[in-house]
Design a protein that fits this description.
By secondary structure, this protein is mainly alpha-helical. The chain has one domain (about 15-159). It is about 60% helix and about 10% strand. Strand 1 (about 40-45) and strand 2 (about 50-55) form a beta hairpin. The longest helix is centred in the N-terminal third of the chain and has 26 residues, at about 10-35. About 30% of the residues are buried.
């Protein structure tokens, strides 16, 4: 097998993490540079709007506004995911991409907390979803869903 066709788990994780991080940071930059705080712009009436919010809390408003605690929790969760899925990542591109999405999204939010003291949120499905979120949050959520689907598929094959 040629060197170019060899599966490299770390490369897949890194590429997915870079894309997730870049998408998160670029969209946050667009919001902060083009929207005054706090402002909303309707994108799809009765469904979607961009709402510039500065989130000092954790997911779903949990854990107060202790930035250091939230950063440490994010790092611990990433380590737990890594140790839980590293063997699967060595064999599955899907798991690598999922883990990379989680890492990239988490790092994007950590960068916000360290640099700004809050996380920039802006995606607001105000009639469907109660919380405003960002691309990094979406990458984390989609990555977790992909990991769960991968685990379900694997457990069915071994049953």
């Amino acid at each position: 097998m040629s060197r170019l066709r060899t599966f490299n788990a770390n490369a897949w994780i890194l590429i997915a993490a870079i894309f997730a991080f870049a998408a998160d940071q670029i969209t946050k930059h667009l919001v902060t540079s083009h929207m005054p705080y706090p402002d909303s712009v309707i994108v799809i009436p009765n469904l979607l709007k961009w709402t510039y919010e500065r989130n000092t809390h954790g997911a779903f408003g949990l854990f107060g506004n202790n930035g250091v605690l939230l950063i440490l929790m994010a790092i611990v969760v990433l380590l737990i995911f890594w140790f839980s899925f590293r063997d699967q990542a060595a064999r599955s591109r899907l798991v690598c991409v999922a883990f990379g999405m989680i890492v990239g999204g988490a790092i994007g939010n950590i960068v916000d907390r360290v640099h700004l003291g809050y996380v920039v949120d802006f995606i607001d499905f105000y009639r469907i979803w109660p919380n405003i979120f960002n691309v990094g949050d979406s990458c984390i959520t989609c990555g977790v869903i992909l990991l769960l689907l991968s685990s379900l598929g694997r457990s069915r094959r071994h049953a």
